[in-house]
Amino acid sequence: MSRPHDAQRPFFPFGNPFRMISPKGSHLSSKLIAVLNNFEETLADRFRKLDPKETGDVLSLTWMEKAMKSLCETHGDIKNLISTLELPVCDWDDKWIDVYLDISVKLLDLCNAFSSEISRLNQGRLMLQCVLHNLESSCPEQFIRASSSLDRWRHHISSRNPRFENCGSILDGLKESLDLPKVKNSAKGKVLMRAMYGVKVQTLFVCSVFVAAFSGSAKKLLELSVSDTHLWGLSFTNLLTSVNSSIRNRPSSGSVAIFKEQEAVEANVKKLAPLIRSGEGTVEEESVRSSVSSLRGNVDHLSQGLDLLEKEVDGFFQVVLTGRDALLCNLRANGPASTQMQKNIVER
Question: How big is the chain by its Cα radius of gyration, in Å?
Answer without folding.
Answer: 24
